[in-house]
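Weekly sync, protein design subgroup
Attendees: M.S., D.O., the rotation student, P.L. (late)

Item 1: inverse folding check
M.S. brought a backbone from last month's batch and wanted to see whether the design step gives back something sensible before we order anything. D.O. pointed out we never logged the input encoding, so this time it goes straight into the notes. Structure tokens as presented (323 positions):
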């Protein structure tokens, strides 16, 4: 071994880590690929349902629904702004691709929350679990997104479902971390007071810890959504459809216009999801305050007004009664 010395010990030999990883992944593919193909089923079911719903729904219905949701959660100003963004998306000709991307992101969000929030809660109960999770989460948040594509393609193939799986792996870390952080930040006085009144661990979690940690958890949801959208373009390399595929085709053809409208669609979708999750994270003074405004409050007020007006006797009958 030429050059091997105390001053240059790395010339003495190298760990064949690359071949170890390749051999391990090849062994998993040869022995457990049918299992991973079966594991795609729940992702496929949710994605197909959301994709069918989002693409079959009339654009006007989707715009009205999102506008009413934004008005209910925040204000009519936000509803107006999101309506304008959605109309812009439709008129630049990327509405079908935007709905496909939205279905992929929402599917990834469903599974990310299903995995991330329980793990975040369990990590607050067990220091050992958090010690194990912490380096894994560090690695998941620092490994380049492209690295995830090779094992996912070998285990799950290509298409929208593997794209959802790789997006979940890439984007689940923030919601785990911020769920853990939010529950840890609940004042100890609150926990002690709840236990003093005889609350069980489940009651403590649902009635005190989760409500107080909700703004932090929603920040994790927001970050997960944004990371999912950033993964859309990368995942298009494994035949994931939607806006990312438009951007990839634009890059491949050096078509600036195609790449630009795909990018604008992703930006528009990011703004919509970001504003809605921020509205959900706003603290409220009392339970049910969210229903005391917006379209729900307007409908309730209209129903009460109609009932009160219909319950009053007509003016002619009132005059006869007076006579």
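Designed sequence read out in the meeting:
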């Amino acid at each position: 071994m030429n050059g091997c010395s105390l001053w240059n010990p790395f010339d003495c030999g190298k760990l064949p880590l690359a071949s170890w990883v390749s051999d391990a992944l090849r062994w998993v593919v040869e022995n457990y690929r049918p299992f991973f193909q079966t594991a795609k089923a729940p992702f496929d079911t949710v994605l197909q349902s959301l994709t069918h719903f989002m693409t079959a729904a009339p654009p006007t219905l989707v715009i009205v629904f999102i506008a009413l949701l934004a008005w209910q959660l925040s204000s009519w100003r936000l509803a107006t702004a999101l309506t304008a963004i959605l109309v812009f998306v439709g008129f630049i000709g990327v509405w079908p691709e935007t709905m496909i991307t939205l279905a992929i992101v929402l599917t990834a969000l469903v599974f990310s929350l299903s995995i991330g929030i329980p793990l975040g809660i369990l990590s607050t109960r067990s220091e050992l679990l958090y010690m194990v999770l912490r380096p894994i989460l560090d690695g998941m948040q620092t490994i380049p997104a492209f690295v995830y594509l090779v094992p996912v393609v070998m285990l799950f193939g290509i298409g929208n479902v593997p794209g959802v799986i790789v997006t979940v792996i890439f984007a689940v870390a923030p919601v785990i971390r911020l769920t853990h952080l939010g529950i840890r930040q609940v004042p100890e006085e609150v926990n002690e007071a709840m236990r003093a009144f005889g609350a069980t661990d489940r009651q403590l979690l649902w009635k005190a810890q989760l409500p107080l940690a909700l703004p932090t958890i929603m920040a994790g949801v927001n970050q997960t959504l944004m990371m999912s959208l950033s993964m859309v373009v990368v995942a298009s390399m494994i035949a994931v459809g939607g806006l990312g595929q438009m951007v990839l085709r634009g890059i491949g053809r050096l078509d600036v216009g195609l790449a630009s409208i795909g990018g604008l669609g992703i930006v528009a979708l990011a703004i919509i999801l970001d504003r809605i999750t921020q509205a959900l994270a706003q603290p409220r003074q009392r339970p049910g305050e969210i229903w005391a405004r917006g379209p729900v409050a307007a409908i309730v007020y209209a129903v009460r007004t109609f009932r009160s007006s219909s319950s009053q006797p007509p003016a002619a009958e009132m005059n006869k009664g007076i006579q």
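Discussion: The chain has a mean pLDDT of 86. The CA atoms of residues 68 and 79 lie 7 Å apart.
Action: P.L. to compare against the previous round before Friday.
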